[in-house]
Amino acid sequence: MTEFKYELMNKDGRARRGRIHTAHGTIETPAFMPVGTAGSVKAMRPEDVKELGSDMILANTYHMWLRPGPDTVQKLGGLHKFMNWPGPILTDSGGFQVYSLNEIRKMTEEGVKFKSHIDGKEMFLTPELATEIQYKLDSTISMVLDECGHMGMSYSEAKASLELTTRWAKRSRDAFVKREGYGQFGIIQGAHYKDLRQASVEQLNEIDFEGYAFGGWLFDETGSKDTYDEMVNHTVDFMQENKPRYMMGVGYPSDIIRSVQMGIDMFDCVLPTRNARNGQAFTSEGVVKVKHEKYEQDDSPLDEKCDCYTCKNYSKAYLRHMMRAKEPFFNTLMTWHNIAFYQNLMKTLRKAIEDGNLDEVATELLKKVK
Question: Could you tell me what percentage of the chain is helix, strand and coil, using 3-state DSSP and rounding each to the nearest 5?
Fold first, then answer.
């Protein structure tokens, strides 16, 4: 078995080029994880997701708990075998999904009570149960259960939420079954208050996880990225250099680029897959919305600089036609391109860190990508 370990290979300013060694394979970082919410990256075969450069995918504890259930997955050999993905899998704790339910949840010291969005059944999720579910799923990296903070929190609310998250983190850690090559990540909370973010990191460092993630909503209510940059730049100063740093739910290519410059190693987001199904392609020239009438007779590919299967074989005009005709193959073609774009972006950033010219490369990329 392989020890779970983060290997730092190169640095360029704050940016880090590394590898995460796990029981299910190596993750080249900075890394982007496509999201397979219910055990499947929508519209894609697992082998194609791998071929496009994805070392790891994310699955959702909340959704897998409700359907088909962790006992079923465990009986069928674990999530890797169940979904035919032998590589590393990270599962979130379900905390964000429960948080998003809002009107049908109740938070207590013990855990969170909510109603299933599928059948309305009352459910109760605790730190221990979230950890147990992820064990049964055979997650390579498990996340602790946390209370998801937001930018509208007062200082006292954010502090109370942070303290609850720390107590839940300790309970999650106590429930975690340590196995060689597997890891559990703590989640940093504290809303937009620098001292609380620092306190969260320090408290989680004491518990000693295999890695650490940024939780909560870091963009302000105007959508400005200044607060995000300020929080991340401040917080990474207190994070351990020998552990992976994971930015949950980010995001747009421009956000990833800037986050890599600030020292973040791992990312996930539904944007490349969800936006693909909605007709939006991420390209080296910005976002292309194929439903626009101007593409009706456009025989050019989504991105002239992309050599993915979609761009080598299909035009914008064809993709627009497929979308209008509501052909299922459209989802595959668009998703294929967007995952390819994201993974090629990560390769570019990794090489730039190795070459010591990340800032120059990032400056050029940010002129065009969203």
Answer: 45, 20, 40
DSSP-derived pairing of the beta strands 183-188 and 211-214: parallel
Q: Which of 246, 237, 236, 235 is nearest to 209 (CA)?
A: 246
Give residue 197's identity as a one-letter amino acid code: R
DSSP code at position 221: T
Q: Are 17 and 30 in contact (CB under 8 A)?
A: yes
Interval 149-206: pLDDT, tens: 888 899 999 999 999 999 999 999 999 999 999 999 999 999 999 999 999 999 999 9
d(CA 87, CA 92): 17
Cβ 135 vs Cβ 148: under 8 Å: no
Domains of the chain in sequence order: 5-269 (3.20.20.105), 270-360 (no CATH)
Q: List, by residue number, the catalytic residues.
A: 92, 268
For 248, phi then psi, to 5°, come to -75, 130
* Cross-sheet strand order for the sheet of 141-143: 31-33, 266-268, 245-247, 211-214, 183-188, 141-143, 89-92, 57-60
Structure tokens at 135: 């064990």
